[in-house]
Amino acid sequence: MPALRTGHIGLNVTDIDRSLAFYRDVLGFVLIGEGKEEDRRYAFLGDGEKLVLTLWQQARGAYDGTRAGLHHLALEVDSIDQVRTYEQALRAAGAAFAHEGVVAHAEGAASGGIFFHDPDGTRLEISAPSGAQAAPAPSGAAPTCGFF
């Protein structure tokens, strides 16, 4: 069997216009296409080369982390400085954060990032593979991305 790769991520949202503004204008995804029929609203978002994320206006309520399904969406950049650039943009947009500033993935880990919520409460992470070794680890030895 060939190895599988992630093709794209699909998220149900309550308000496509609000979510599109967040993912496009704050996180920088590029709008590739959209459906505007009243009962079939969706948006295809990419990174400039390929489809990364689809938003589907199908949810009736906010994200619920106590139900089975998506735990969080993890996005990666090359450096902690890039993580901090996103943190500034997210703070300016009023995003809710799970932790204050950049945190390590676990005690002593070099990798880390920021943990926040989209307009529907979906948990998101933007991290870098190194540069966070001096940052706190909110969950001690447990994975930070697992408990927020």
From TrEMBL:
<protein>
    <submittedName>
        <fullName>VOC family protein</fullName>
    </submittedName>
</protein>
<dbReference type="Pfam" id="PF00903">
    <property type="entry name" value="Glyoxalase"/>
</dbReference>
<keyword id="KW-0479">Metal-binding</keyword>
<dbReference type="InterPro" id="IPR051332">
    <property type="entry name" value="Fosfomycin_Res_Enzymes"/>
</dbReference>
<dbReference type="InterPro" id="IPR018146">
    <property type="entry name" value="Glyoxalase_1_CS"/>
</dbReference>
<dbReference type="InterPro" id="IPR029068">
    <property type="entry name" value="Glyas_Bleomycin-R_OHBP_Dase"/>
</dbReference>
<feature type="domain" description="VOC">
    <location>
        <begin position="5"/>
        <end position="129"/>
    </location>
</feature>
<dbReference type="InterPro" id="IPR004360">
    <property type="entry name" value="Glyas_Fos-R_dOase_dom"/>
</dbReference>
<dbReference type="InterPro" id="IPR037523">
    <property type="entry name" value="VOC_core"/>
</dbReference>
